[in-house]
Amino acid sequence: MSGICRTRLQEERKQWRKDHPFGFYARPEKEADGSLNLLVWEVGIPGKQNTPWESEYPSKPPKCTVCLSILDEEKSWKPAITIKQILLGIQDLLNDPNPGDPAQADAFHLFRQDKAAYERKVRQIAREMQAQGQLA
Hints:
alpha+beta, two-stranded antiparallel ribbon, Ubiquitin Conjugating Enzyme
């Protein structure tokens, strides 16, 4: 990892520790030797009130890849985007997915065809994750 990238992520981590939204957490993964891997982060994102994801966030998050237009250099990415902005963007997408730029075909089709069924599926997944101990 280049020095500029490492320095930027270290500063992001310091800023996050000083000021982050209530209920969120973000921390770099630890390597076997105890050092921090600043390229891989464990995060918790609470669902907004009155949404299918309300109060649900992983206490032991499953591994996933983030696919956001704000991370795409050809779309909205800017070097000044912070970890805080990325996580708030994910929180917004949980309840208000962007059908103009879908990341998952099955979820996109269900959302477009039957939003009530989509919301039932979201709640079902949240309940299953909670039963497996993956949600707080």
